[in-house]
UniProtKB/TrEMBL annotation:
It comes from Candidatus Collierbacteria bacterium GW2011_GWA2_46_26. Residues 5-47, 76-119 form the SpoVT-AbrB domain. The keyword Repeat applies. NCBIfam families: division/cell wall cluster transcriptional repressor MraZ. One of its GO terms (cellular component) is nucleoid. It comes from the Bacteria. PANTHER family: TRANSCRIPTIONAL REGULATOR MRAZ (PTHR34701:SF1). Gene3D superfamilies: Transcriptional regulator MraZ domain. GO terms for biological process: negative regulation of DNA-templated transcription initiation. This is Transcriptional regulator MraZ. Forms oligomers. It is found in: Cytoplasm, Nucleoid. Keywords: Cytoplasm, DNA-binding, Repeat, Transcription, Transcription regulation.
Length: 142
């Protein structure tokens, strides 16, 4: 499980250091792909395999299923960590998530989210407003 929040700097060549605590959970093996809400997702390979099987089992006739599969699968790239725990984020993914120099690497239980720092904090502000507006969490049964 991935928890915690780390602030990192994206190198000029597009390399990002993955926090040590997260590298242990990845075992140097994972998949980076488009995420939702303006971030990137980094999944451990074991979870990605199960998730991919679920995507493959979705009905081909369902437009939402096709769109989600396209979003996540067509942009996916294997995680390749160097000796210093850095990985190259491809330019198309950096552009898609609007990653600049300051990046947030956040644990979200089954995955790691990679955010542009400004985007992340704007998104957190929206979340706080939504949660404070009332019964947003009541349907989750937690």
């Amino acid at each position: 499980m991935f928890t915690g929040l780390y602030y990192h700097r994206l190198e000029a060549k597009g390399r990002l250091a993955i926090p040590q605590a997260f590298r242990e959970g990845l075992a140097s093996d994972g998949v980076i792909t488009s995420g939702l809400d303006g971030c990137l997702f980094l999944f451990p390979s074991s979870y990605w395999q199960k998730f991919s099987e679920k995507l493959a089992s979705l009905p081909l006739t369902n437009q939402a299923a096709r769109n989600l599969t396209r979003l996540l699968v067509q942009s996916a790239v294997a995680l390749d960590l160097d000796g210093q725990g850095r990985t190259l984020i491809p330019e198309y993914l950096r552009n898609q998530a609007n990653l600049k120099k300051q990046v947030v690497v956040a644990g979200s239980l089954t995955r790691i989210e990679i955010w542009d720092q400004e985007t992340y904090h704007r998104h957190l502000d929206l979340i706080a407003q939504t949660i404070n507006e009332g019964d947003a969490l009541s349907s989750l049964d937690i």
